[in-house]
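Sequence, please.
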């Protein structure tokens, strides 16, 4: 792996952590990314040259998503709410900035012409994202309703939209489900924290926060929590549970053939999603355990575990993951062995706020660093 280009955002602070870059999105040769320098950027993926940038007057705190037709890019900020920009020139289409919301820190989700954005106040907002609608940018619903006092805990990672339902994990230990067409609670999609495996099996009495993304592959949904549990949830029931060494955070990557997740010890797990290969434990646990295909570890720096705060990305025959020391790992998807490593920022001080997951498009990988640098990396042949 070699660095093809770098782009430096503007610094907004001092010390090693200045302009942290959130998750990166790549679409039709353009890299879309914000930074904690109050700007959102569109860069040419091949060269890293700036196509346009826009000052949004607030730290950009989430990765971006695009409308179905690719004409609009959406993202959340620390103090200016949710923004929608035209991809051609960065001009503002609309923004929503309620006074009672501190920030939007979770990447929004697009479902047809509906944009779904969780906020730090424990609510989920849905917007009309149809670029030809007379009501573009207007709020379709808020869950729970503003008149309700039953706010959720904080949402930490992204959710998924599937079959008219939105699923997302929460600090209250629950997977919350909302029917997208109505904005009402979806009891089939939701899953309460006091029904989690560690609760049912006689563990701690309090549900553990879900600070990992909720993802889907085929008919199966996956999420994880601070009780070390990686869970397959299908047909309104838990199918299997894998117990990691430490709490699982950040993104999870899943296909119909493999599930990849990482924990706070720096371990990266590859699990077989096939329920026929799962085994019931002999100690009469309530749930089956999936087959562990492999487990790889990021490198320690001294006595400190190289924790992965972002998450893994599957591309071709490899898994890509960045630890909080800024080391990029290219891991063989079949064997679980690290093929290459690349240090994106030097030093022996971890960045515990760096949650950026890499993005892969073609033969290039794109990542953001703790000092606000965006990096384009040339990859070796992915089919090797």
């Amino acid at each position: 792996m070699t660095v093809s280009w770098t782009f430096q955002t503007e610094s907004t602070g001092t010390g090693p952590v200045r302009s942290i870059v959130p998750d990166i999105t790549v679409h039709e040769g353009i890299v879309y990314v914000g930074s904690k320098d109050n700007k959102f950027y569109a860069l040419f993926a091949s060269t890293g040259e700036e196509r346009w940038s826009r000052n949004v007057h607030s730290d950009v705190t989430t990765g971006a998503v695009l409308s179905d037709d690719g004409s609009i890019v959406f993202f959340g900020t620390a103090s200016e709410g949710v923004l929608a920009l035209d991809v051609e020139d960065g001009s503002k289409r609309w923004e929503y900035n309620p006074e009672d919301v501190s920030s939007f820190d979770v990447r929004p989700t697009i479902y047809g012409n509906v944009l779904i954005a969780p906020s730090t106040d424990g609510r989920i907002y849905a917007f009309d994202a149809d670029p030809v609608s007379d009501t573009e940018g207007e709020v379709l619903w808020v869950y729970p309703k503003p008149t309700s006092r039953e706010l959720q805990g904080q949402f930490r990672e992204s959710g998924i939209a599937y079959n008219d339902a939105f699923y997302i994990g929460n600090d209250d230990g629950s997977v919350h489900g909302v029917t997208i067409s109505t904005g009402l609670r979806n009891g089939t999609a939701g899953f309460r924290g006091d029904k989690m495996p560690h609760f049912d099996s006689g563990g701690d009495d309090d549900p553990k926060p879900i600070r990992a993304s909720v993802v889907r592959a085929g008919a199966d949904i996956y999420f994880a929590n601070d009780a070390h549990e990686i869970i397959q949830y299908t047909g309104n029931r838990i199918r299997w549970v894998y117990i990691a060494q430490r709490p699982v955070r950040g993104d999870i990557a899943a296909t119909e053939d493999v599930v990849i997740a990482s924990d706070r010890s720096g371990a990266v797990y590859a699990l077989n999603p096939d329920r026929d290969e799962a085994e019931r434990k002999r100690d009469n646990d309530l749930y089956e355990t999936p087959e562990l295909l492999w487990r790889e570890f990021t490198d320690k720096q001294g006595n400190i575990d190289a924790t992965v705060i972002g998450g893994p990305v599957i591309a071709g025959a490899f898994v890509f993951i960045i630890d909080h020391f800024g080391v990029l790992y290219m891991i063989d998807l079949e064997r679980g062995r690290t093929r290459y490593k690349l240090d994106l920022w030097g030093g022996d001080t971890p960045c515990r706020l760096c949650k950026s997951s890499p993005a892969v498009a073609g033969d290039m990988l794109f990542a953001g660093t703790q000092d606000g640098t965006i990096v384009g990396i040339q990859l070796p042949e992915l089919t090797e």
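The first helix runs from residue 197 to 200.
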